[in-house]
Amino acid sequence: MKIALAHELLTMKGGAERVLRIAADMFPEAPVYTLLYDEKKLGDWFPAHRVVSATLPLPYSLLPAPYRLNHHLHLRHFPRAVEQWDFSQYDVVLSFSSAFMHGIITNRAPRHVCYVHSPARYLWDRTHDVLDRAGHGMLGAIRRQYMERTFHRLRIWDAETAARPDKLLAASREVQRRIQLYWRRDAEVVYPPINEEWLTTPHSPLPTPNPNPNPNPTPYFFIASTLVPYKRIDLAIHACNALKLPLKIAGEGPERRRLEQISGPTIAFLGHQIAAQLRELYTNAKATIFPGDEDFGLVPLESMACGTPVIAYGSGGALETVIEGKTGTFFGEPTADSLQKKLKEFDQNLYTKENGQKQARCFGETKFRQKITHALEAVLR
Known about the structure:
Blueprint: E1 3-10, H1 15-26, E2 32-37, H2 39-42, E3 51-53, H3 58-61, H4 65-68, H5 78-83, E4 92-97, E5 111-116, H6 127-134, H7 140-161, E6 167-170, H8 173-183, E7 188-189, E8 221-224, H9 233-243, E9 247-250, H10 256-261, E10 267-271, H11 275-284, E11 287-290, H12 299-305, E12 310-313, E13 328-331, H13 336-345, H14 353-361, H15 365-380
Parallel strand pairs: 1-2, 1-4, 2-3, 4-5, 5-6, 6-7, 8-9, 8-11, 9-10, 11-12, 12-13
């Protein structure tokens, strides 16, 4: 079959882009349609010759890269952009949507299978949080008013176009629930896969081994995340500040400066880490903290694959991967106090490496590939 792939944004490496990368490997001849593309950051995963970028209105296309690639500036234009693509030369389109890709137009020729990471959360369950943050500052009132109007228009478009895909796949049962709630459609759950490399024992040392290894490192808690508001890294920082617990944070993002300002002396920001370094950080941690309310979340699986338990907020996708008392535990409220209480009582010795690794293997890549293939074959019958 002749297939095209479609994905919202190729501007940073995250869990959604890792899922797309597997699909791109499954279908090496398929072009990748996207709204914004940053070759410097994603060119090694998705080379430019495979990428079809959307055409932006003239004023935006002339902006310098940092502004041109800022998707917040283009929200109003994205619906029209995805509707302008012509997929008539393909048998099937496999799209990956967090906001707009479900709205591409195929009219059943080709067929359209849409893998939904989530209906746009800033249009539905996180709208008020986003608007509250936008309302701060000197121009906050104007910014908030503009975003309210934009979100209203996009919410109508989002709901009206939800009927366009021939088949919907949901990244978790939590996402499946939201699809039913907001779009009134059924979806089949296909969990994002953990990279197979996490499920195997590395056979080579780190590319840049520590020249002065410490055989008895100070115990620490760990976070691997992009540093954006909805990840709620600040909850972990406040909790560890209060208890004076060591916390290492791997990842980059626009929130880094603010998070560093609220961090005490026991908090360390490590920036971007390659896979081998992440594996070492996971393996040596007492536990990985996962404080956000996520659609799914690959971080708990990566941690469990390294034999390290997870302390997660008890909501969203983490409830579908972490097993209470066996591969990790949950804190009940999205507050620093609730997490602080859990950190106080946490006992690393209650969790075995084997249980974590066994659970992680349930989310392997082979099952994901099989389910994607079956979904594509089903719409072509």
